[in-house]
Amino acid sequence: MVANGLTTFAENPDPTRSDCHAWSASPIYDFLATLCGITPAAPGFRAVSIRPALGALKEVHGSMPHPNGVISVDLVRKGKDGVSGAIELPPGVSGIFYWNGQEKALRPGKQAVEM
Fold first, then answer.
1. Cα separation, 42 vs 24, whole angstroms
2. d(C-alpha 6, C-alpha 83), whole Å
3. What's residue 76's pLDDT?
């Protein structure tokens, strides 16, 4: 679709045009909420839950805009069940990172994760 000059997901195969349909936002939401695992954990998104679901992926990198800045996830699988990387939360936002039944408290700023 990018090669065809489209800026949103096309509704139909070629020939088509780039209509901005509400459903075309779902891949972006699913990438951030499901693969990266970024979801609100408190009213007003004052806290975040990060529970990535990588499936067969070896790594995931994503950023989500937040009223206080940007929430960033940069993770790489380690072996069969491990993960390492970095998570960055904007000022005033705390959270919890979940991986394979383990939890790690998150604070504002950039922090390493290793599980």
1. 27
2. 35
3. 98
